[in-house]
User: What shape does this take?
Amino acid sequence: MFYKDDRLALFIDGSNLYAAAKSLGFDIDYKLLRQEFERRGKLIRAYYYTALLDNEDYSPIRPLVDWLNYNGFTMVTKAAREYTDTMGRRKVKGNMDVELVVNAMELAPRLDHAVLFSGDGDFRPLVEALQRQGVRVSVVSTLRSQPPMIADELRRQADNFIELEALREVIGRPPREGGQAPEA
Assistant: This one.
């Protein structure tokens, strides 16, 4: 599915990939992830999307964001909003879907292959729009979690589905104590 001369871009929905890897019992080694896709084609861009809490002195996701920023990833962040739900629980909202879609559509004319790291069914129209522009789309997520983290309509629309579990040996590492920071 990958060709050496393909111009590739990675679009990583940070919170979705984190949740999928966690459900499978491993952490992502982002250096290895980048190297793997550099081997598969000409990597044009590797985007990573996450929301950050502004009002905290220290965000547990900050070290990862800083490391990715210094190691060849294009970071796309925005402030997450905190609220209290009807049960009195503290919740965080920080959806990055629009930013991911805009970047993918802007880059599409310069791509042969887009790799979307998300199982969110909301991305099905994006995959379809990229395909209409002649871009092949691979989606990385998992069917092996309970429930599966890949929306059926997204998996069907993609040109290629890559099971995250199949990448464990290539891009995974054992989870750290406390693990990578949870994301919004």
